[in-house]
Amino acid sequence: MKKYIAEFFGTFVLVFFGCGTAVVTGGYTGGTGSGFLGVVAIALAFGLSIVAAAYAIGPISGCHVNPAVSLGVLVSGGMTVKDFIGYVVGQVAGAFAASAVFSIVLANSSLEGYGADGYGKLSGVGLGLGGALVVELVLTFVFVMTVLGVTASDKTANLAGLMIGLTLTLVHLIGIPLTGTSVNPARSLAPAVFTGGTALQQVWVFILAPFAGGALAGVVHRYFYSKKTLA
User: Fold this and answer.
1) Does 32 score more than 50 pLDDT?
2) What is the pLDDT of residues 44-87, one digit of tens each?
3) How far is 103 from 24, CA to CA, in rounded Å?
């Protein structure tokens, strides 16, 4: 149970600070500032949130804070189905709690939105459905492969939080203008539910594609990082 509670806490931190920064900075357009500053600020917020969460709860749960990561770990043989379910429940609950708290923060402000992802009219560059599916699958694959790879050996485990945070920053730098960057079903589901409308109608893309990317990363990791290879 401690692991599941830790995942709740870590996902709360990720969604509150990551999506919150997206709202405060005005998203891809950067509000009254430049789009460049908006993208960099949001990317850093997500990356630094992972770094903070990793060193806070990493020793407890491994700090997945992402159902796609948990699926990759499951497929690669690193966790049980029971733990996978518990992790996902904790992660989704943490994401919803973060969006709920942020809705209270926004109650008497001029800010709007919850950092939902999207394609078409909701994409900063008008990316279509096909492009959104592909980019989310690719970005999630790269991210989850990094998570699995950097945690596979004790030699790199001490740097895992930093490397995972930097990788999440990297995928956001290209993904924010395209879809807003999901690579995390929990991170996308809660803001979409609170936003409603088109964002909620499109959220299936940001659940399906990250899960597919995470599963693919798990399969590839299991092939390359066999016990013989790690020995």
Assistant:
1) no
2) 999 999 999 999 998 999 899 999 999 999 999 999 999 999 99
3) 13
pTM confidence score: 0.91
For residue 36, what pLDDT is reported? 63
CATH for the 2-230 domain, from 3.30.1390.20, 1.10.150.130, 2.30.38.10, 1.20.1080.10: 1.20.1080.10
Give the 3-state secondary structure of 133-199. HHHHHHHHHHHHHHHHHHCCCHHHHCCHHHHHHHHHHHHHHHHHHHCCCCCCHHHHHHHHHHHCHHH
Q: Which two tokens stand for residue 169?
A: 């920053």
* Exposed / middle / buried, residue 109 (Cβ in 10 Å: 0-12, 13-18, 19+): exposed
Q: Any residues with CB less than 8 A from the CB of 96 and at least 6 apart, and which?
A: 189, 190, 193
The mean per-residue pLDDT over the stretch 14-37 comes to: 76
User: Position 159: which residue type?
Assistant: L
User: In the block, which residue shows the tokens 């942020």?
Assistant: 102
